[in-house]
Amino acid sequence: MEPLRLTLSCNEYDRTRFLVDGTVQAEGIQLNIVSLPSEERHRRFARDLEFDVCELQMGVFLGWMARGAPFSAIPIFPHRKFCHGNLLIHAASGIQRPDDLAGKTIGMRAHFNPVSLWMRGVLQDEYGVPARSLKIRTNQQEQVPGWQPPEWMAIERLPKGKKIEDVLPDGEIHACMLPEIAPRHFAISGVRRLWPNFREVEKEYYRRTKIFPIRHVVVVKNSVLERHPWAARSLVEAFTKAKEIGIKHVSDTRRSFLAWYGAELEEERELFGGDAWPYNINDNRQVLETMARYAEMVGITERKLGISEMFAESMLADE
């Protein structure tokens, strides 16, 4: 029998590289893998649904699912990261503590960005900052067809060519939440993280909540799942095997140039105590339900989505 031919777009991480390079094959499927950085991948998928299987950021995913998305998720979460360290402020803003952010103007790449989704929820849950009190400035086009800001939302897009981090020192915004933080962000006088000790804050957050934020999930077109429902399980098994090989590969401390790489691995093993990257629904239920609640809170969805609405039917049978 001829294998099912599917296109897959994902980033090449330590947990996906052995799928991307062909070491791991999905049973019954011939994958044409297009490895792309997040921004290009999301843009192409949101615009043209270009790929059969795609790594998609969670804010866009939840926004689409609330509006009749032509795809469903499988429980593969290739990108997770804590987000406290991604919140920058400028000294001139007068912000000293998290609760100082209430009612302030916050910059973010896009309303649907998963970092800004997570952090608005965390600020409300943990620090009493009403998520809907924040005034939002963005610099990217939203990637959820049909979405319109709710009446209560104060949101504006910056003029073309301007980036959020560019207007932070000008006082146009009081803080910003960025997907990644780079040294160039601190080259601007007065810019710093809200939590300078963000690593300790994030570790304490995990110890208390057991939440390791999910940023991306893998989705499959419904047209594929309807004709080939078995493909979902085959893809999960392939991603899982690639992850296991990848973790074993990077667990060799000699593979990194970092002087204390081994110590970092030991510290994370002690913190998480087991598999920090489970590829199933049950072990991620709390994280997924929290994110669904935050999505409703900030206006990404009009109601809290249930987990059964997110995932392929064949993936729900085991839960």
Please trace the helix and strand order, writing H or E for each element: EHEHEHEEEHEEHEEHEHHHHH
Q: What is the rounded distance between the termini?
A: 31 Å
Tell me the CATH architecture of the largest domain. Answer: 3-Layer(aba) Sandwich
Helix content: 25-40%
| Lateral arrangement of strands in the main beta sheet | 8-7-6-9-5-10
Beta-strand residue fraction: 15-25%
Task: Write down the CATH class of the largest domain.
Answer: Alpha Beta
The helix-and-strand class reads alpha/beta
Separate helix tally: 11
Which short descriptors sum up this protein?
six-stranded mixed sheet, 34% helix, 11 helices, 319 residues, single chain, D-Maltodextrin-Binding Protein, domain 2, alpha/beta, five-stranded mixed sheet
What can you see in these coordinates?
With 319 residues, the protein is of the alpha/beta class. The chain has two domains: 4-80 and 213-316, 3-Layer(aba) Sandwich (D-Maltodextrin-Binding Protein, domain 2), CATH 3.40.190.10; 84-209, Periplasmic binding protein-like II (D-Maltodextrin-Binding Protein, domain 2). Helices cover 34% and strands 18% of the residues. The strands form two sheets. It has a six-stranded mixed sheet with strand order 8-7-6-9-5-10. The protein has a five-stranded mixed sheet with strand order 2-1-3-11-4, with helices on both faces. Strand 1, helix 1 and strand 2 (29-35) form a beta-alpha-beta unit. Helix 4 (114-127) crosses helix 10 (285-298). It is globular, with a radius of gyration of 20 Å.
